[in-house]
Write a structure and sequence with these properties.
The chain is α/β, with parallel strands linked by helices. The chain has helices at 3-13, 30-42, 60-70, 103-119, 139-143, 154-166, 186-193, 209-218, 227-231, 235-244, and strands at residues 18-23, 47-50, 75-77, 91-97, 123-131, 171-175, 200-203, 222-225. Helix content is 41%, strand content 17%. It is globular and about 45 Å long. The structure holds SN-glycerol-1-phosphate (1GP).
Length: 250
């Protein structure tokens, strides 16, 4: 029952890049979700990631139900806390903040929520989550109470990802944080992607199709965009086209 994970691995094996649209349930209403679904279908968006550091409203379930009722794009939870688990999603990125040294986000919250998460029946994808300094402090760097990896410390990122993989993480997600002023550099993406076998997700501060394209060229397997799309929903088409135009020869 690891259908979505196998899809990530298969896409990586065949050199295909994926585009994921991040939906913050606090920032979308019913009509925006409808609009998002239509454009995402036209643009062949691969995944919806749903979640955020803070989910203030309580319409996470409704948001996911609306997506599931109207399209077959997989919905993957990207939770900021154990309260953001919805059984209506398809899978859960089971995040351990391996870039930080806050035991709560490495293992503590997982222990507390384990029975509940298991009972959800969701596909659980163990994910090494690495927050990289994105310029000014982002919500995730503040909330996590852990230092992000300095933006120019490629070796630290590389070793962190390698350790995560050897500990059994099935995905590595490097994130400069939502709305980051500086997205992750191509150099860091290269350093990391060359040293791991598992799929690599990149997000945080990606605002142009060009940047998304370069990230894929550098070794990203999945590009996540949230903020830029909230500002201009039509960007979805160009972003998707840029990402899909990259096909690695493997
Ligand atoms: C944040 O990686 C995501 O966790 C996406 O970031 O909102 O800046 O696109 P943006």
């Amino acid at each position: 029952k690891q259908a979505l994970y196998h899809q990530f691995v298969e896409k990586k094996r065949t050199g295909k890049k994926s585009f994921s649209v991040l939906i913050d349930p606090d920032k979308v209403d019913v009509s925006t979700i409808d609009q998002l679904i239509n454009i995402a279908l036209e643009a062949s968006v691969d995944y919806f990631f749903v979640g955020g550091s803070l989910v203030i409203s309580n319409h996470l379930d409704d948001c996911i139900k609306q997506i599931k009722a109207n399209c077959d794009i997989p919905v993957i939870l990207f939770p900021g806390s154990p309260s953001q688990v919805s059984r209506y999603a398809d899978a859960l990125l089971y995040l351990s903040l391996i870039s930080g040294r806050n035991p709560e986000l490495l293992i503590g919250q997982h222990v507390i929520s384990a029975p509940f998460v298991k009972k959800s029946g969701l596909e659980i994808i163990p994910t090494g989550y690495m927050v990289v300094d994105g310029g000014a402090p982002t919500t995730v760097s503040y909330i996590s109470n852990a230092s992000p990896i300095p933006a120019d410390k490629n070796e630290i990122a590389m070793c962190t990802a390698m350790a995560g993989e050897m500990l059994g993480m099935k995905l590595i997600y490097m994130d400069a944080g939502s709305g980051a002023q500086r997205p992750i550099t191509e150099k860091m993406i290269q350093f990391v992607s060359q040293h791991i076998e598992v799929p690599l997700i990149i997000g945080g501060g990606i605002t142009t199709p060009e940047k998304a394209y370069l990230n894929c060229k550098a070794g990203a397997d999945v590009i996540v965009v949230g903020n830029a799309i909230e500002k201009d929903i039509s960007l979805i088409k160009e972003m998707s086209a840029a990402i899909k135009s990259v096909k690695e020869t493997v």
